[in-house]
């Protein structure tokens, strides 16, 4: 059977071959609606890009696609994505594969990129980060018959990938802060709608609640701007928290700056924790208590699962090594708490509430 060509797509769509070329290659010159229609037709016809290597050898693309819902500017400061990409590339290089990386602003745009890559045979498979409940990207790659692996807590056990269990370190974190006498903890999370955000919300709520500690959760977007804005709001509230936990290093460092602007000392007036580590977390004053994970190994593991799927033997997602709390100088006793009695229930924002020390509540030492 003859392979479909751009001319076939053009005839079916009733447009010029140039318009088809623009649509398939993501170039300006066609409307968004027309581009989508052309990509639909290309997929229906089973069109594959006729690059020189494909034409001569019929070879695979030998590339894996990875789309990030971030700006390129955010990528330069956010350690998680940089380390994740480093791990992905390390695994790819061992297989002689390249990485096709693209930034987008929403899930619909990410799906369009997947469809274009599939139509043009630009990649052999894709990695999907930060899964959502009823994630539209999963349905899209299935319809495209595009091999995929997930990075993060999965809504579908049938797709391969890797995930981290955030519950153990959330308990460790709650034990540490409760053991220092904190009675009101705030969490500055990433955007709503991602499965790992919901898991972390519930894990911290449950673990803190076991100690009688109140939690407040606000939504950021991983940027310093959101970290600063939300920290200011939290600290200007009359019932402000005595500890703030940030979902990444960038928001935590911005929060540290705001605390200083407001005349608060860390950790004397406020304890700060970052749920990702970075060199900046170690050199700011004071160095930040963090949740440490081997993010590069996480990316490499997810990529390895994609290769297993490409070989036709893919299985359910595998669990990556989890994070652990590294205590530095940004966490200390809650204001007014006698360091020798960190679990005094009469201290904190919810005075008089009982505080269950739990099995680890008094055993963790603050390292100056």
In brief, what are we looking at here?
With 368 residues, the protein is α/β, with parallel strands linked by helices. The chain has helices at 6-13, 17-24, 32-45, 52-57, 72-75, 79-95, 107-120, 136-144, 167-179, 195-209, 224-235, 249-261, 279-283, 295-310; strands spanning 63-68, 98-103, 125-129, 148-151, 161-163, 184-189, 214-219, 243-246, 271-274, 289-292, 318-319, 324-326. The chain is 42% helix and 14% strand.
Radius of gyration: 24 Å
CATH topology type of the domain at 167-293? Rossmann fold
CATH class wording of the domain at 167-293: Alpha Beta
Shape: elongated
Query: Stretches where pLDDT falls below 50 for ≥5 residues?
Result: 50-59, 339-368
Counted by DSSP, the helix tally is: 14
* Corresponding CATH architecture of the domain at 167-293: 3-Layer(aba) Sandwich
- Look at the structure and give the mean pLDDT: 83
Q: What portion of the residues fall into strands of 2 or more residues?
A: 5-15%
Superfamily (CATH H level) name of the domain at 167-293? Response regulator
Report strand order across the widest sheet.
2-1-3-4-5-11
Largest sheet: 6 strands, parallel
The H-and-E topology, N to C, reads as HHHHEHHEHEHEEHEHEHEHEHEHEE
Question: How many E strands?
Answer: 12
Give the N-terminus to C-terminus distance in angstroms: 72 Å
The helix fraction, in percent, is 40-55%
């Amino acid at each position: 059977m003859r392979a479909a060509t751009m001319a076939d797509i053009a005839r079916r769509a009733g447009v010029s071959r140039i318009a088809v070329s623009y649509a398939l290659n993501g170039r300006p010159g066609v409307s968004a609606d027309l581009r989508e229609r052309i990509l639909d037709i290309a997929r229906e016809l089973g069109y594959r890009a006729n690059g020189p290597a494909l034409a001569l050898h019929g070879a695979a693309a030998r590339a894996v696609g990875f789309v990030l819902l971030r700006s390129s500017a955010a990528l330069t400061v956010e350690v998680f994505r940089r380390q994740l990409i480093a791990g992905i590339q390390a695994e790819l290089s061992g297989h002689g594969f390249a990485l096709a990386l693209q930034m987008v602003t929403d899930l619909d745009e990410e799906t369009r990129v997947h469809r274009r890559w599939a139509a043009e045979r630009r990649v052999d498979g894709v990695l999907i980060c930060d899964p959502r409940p009823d994630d539209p990207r999963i349905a899209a790659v299935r319809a495209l018959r595009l091999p995929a692996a997930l990075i993060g807590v999965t809504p579908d056990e049938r797709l391969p990938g890797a995930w981290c269990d955030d519950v153990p370190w959330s308990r460790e974190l709650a034990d540490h802060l409760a053991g220092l006498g904190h009675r009101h903890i705030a969490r500055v999370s990433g955007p709503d709608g991602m499965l790992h955000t919901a898991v972390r919300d519930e894990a911290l709520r449950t673990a803190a609640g076991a100690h009688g500690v109140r939690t407040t959760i606000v939504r950021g977007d991983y940027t310093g701007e959101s970290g600063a804005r939300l920290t200011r709001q939290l600290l200007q509230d009359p019932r402000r928290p005595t500890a703030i936990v940030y979902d990444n290093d960038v928001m935590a460092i911005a929060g540290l700056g705001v605390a200083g602007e407001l005349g608060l000392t860390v950790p004397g007036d406020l304890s700060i924790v970052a749920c990702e580590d970075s060199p900046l977390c170690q050199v700011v004053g004071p160095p930040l208590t963090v949740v440490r994970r081997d993010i590069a190994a996480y990316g490499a593991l997810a990529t390895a699962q994609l290769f297993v799927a490409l070989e036709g033997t893919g299985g359910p997602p595998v669990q990556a090594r989890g994070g652990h709390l590294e205590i530095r100088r940004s966490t200390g006793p809650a204001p007014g708490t006698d360091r020798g009695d960190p679990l005094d229930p009469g201290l904190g924002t919810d005075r008089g509430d009982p505080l269950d020390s739990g099995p680890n509540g008094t055993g963790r030492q603050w390292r100056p």
